[in-house]
Amino acid sequence: MTENTQAFQLPEAVETPSRFRNTIGKYVVRRNANCISCGLCARLCPHGVHPRYENYAKPLRPVSHKCIGHACRDTDHYCISRCPQNALSLKLNPLLDTLGDYRWTAEMLLGHFAMAETGDLPHVDLEYNLGASGGGFDKIRFRRPDPAAAIDVPDTVMDTSIELNKTGDDRPRRTISIPCYGGGMSYGSTALPVIVGRARAAKRLNTLTCTGEGGYPPEFLPYKDHVITQVATGLFGVREETIKHCPVVEFKYAQGAKPGLGGHLLGEKVTEAVAAMRETVVGSSLFSPFPFHSVYSVEDHKKHVDWMKEINHNVLVSVKVSTPTDVDMVAVGAYYAGAHIIHIDGSYGGTGAAPDIAKKNIAMPIEYAIPKVHNFLVQEGARDKITLIASGGIRNGLDVAKAIALGADGVVIGTAEIVALECVRCSNCESGRGCARGIATTDPELGYMTTEEYCEQRIVNMYLAWRKQWCDLLRSFGMTSIRELVGRSDLLVHLDYLDARERAAYPAAPDHSIVL
Fold first, then answer.
1. How far is Cα 345 from Cα 347, in angstroms, rounded to an integer?
2. How far apart, in whole angstroms, are the C-alpha atoms of residue 290 and residue 263?
3. pLDDT digit string (tens) for 300-348?
4. Which of 79, 83, 113, 268 has the maximal Cβ count within 10 Å?
5. What is the maximum alpha-carbon separation in the chain?
6. What is the secondary structure of 406-465 as a DSSP string?
7. Which of 492, 303, 485, 322 is nearest to 408 (CA)?
8. Helix, strand, coil % (nearest 5) of the chain?
């Protein structure tokens, strides 16, 4: 039986500007009182920094986030020097010193804002592929490709799809059109328009998103073929009827951001609607146990897998685990228990609600776990019979490609989708009213600062921009399918294993002085 293998046409990008009055950009362009509204700057600028309306005498505020800054100085459209009244000034945005952190730098955030707005790669000089962590994916780079290997084929014929059922059983052989799907974000952790917008985007992109551990709101039903139901240790909102809706069910045994701790939702976010969905008490903090107290062996785990398969005869089963040192043995156990997908979740994932002490000190980083699991599955003769999905600190399009080259079939994305909605990484996710952008909130007023349509299109746009990066990368190595990249660690280098001369051939990670 085959599903979703027919030709799929990717959606179109639609410009979706910020919902806030002043979009944050790398540069700030100011217009002072000397301006006589001659309109020269509007005629000169090819990037739309100076909008101008017919029959409107007053000058408009510059759209600073579209400005390419001092790179424009040597062109004939440099508005700063061409202004006859010297009314324009340009400087770096001082907000960059306070925005972001070492994994998600200010420029990486701004780059994702731009991709989510336009569906294209930023035209401003932003470093959105590398953070300033000093390790992890920031130290892993793709080798310089041989120009002779490059091929010239359009994006439309490039295959970025991955298969989710490689077992050969009688269940659907489902494919998704991009090598990413949305991670679990529960009803209660984020605003309802956000999680529904993610589901709408998943349908548009022919991929998936996940309910998280918060139940299945009825607003998901129009998109049910693209929504994974998560079954986690608290069993909040888990019902047989919702399992019958889903194409994939995900058992969450552990989360890389807080392995051994279980989930938690503080009482401030447990509103009346959240409590009703989770069948609990308003205002009471909710803690998921660790682990499933019915699972202490592979045999116990197989009973769980069989339970889901009996409820829904077409469902695929994913097993989400963290990355202990024996994660390779856990993956093989999931395979023998009958799972279709093994989802390994490394450290540095999770939202701002996950404790730093856990994220930084417990689970194995995902860049170590992926090849460990991939190589062990190859040795066991099982690699081609199970789909390996990775998550935990995968931030951008090149991180996705690096994870695949290390051995994953695809990845799960959480934070980047929220950043596409203009999250500024303030780490107040655990608070009911703490999210400055109305994303990670259950407050009914703040939660409707955004809309489903806005969330849907911004996420679609971001993935379309990422896809352009994947296509460029694949072409440079003479590939036409993302599946050809799986396990090609020979195409990667780690900067720590190169001498100074060799390292100089690769771009340096940003060295921002960021206030944490």
1. 7
2. 8
3. 889 889 989 999 999 999 999 988 889 999 999 999 999 999 999 987 7
4. 113
5. 79
6. HT-SEEEESHHHHHHTT----S-TTSSS--TTSSS---HHHHTTS-HHHHHHHHHHHHHH
7. 485
8. 35, 15, 50
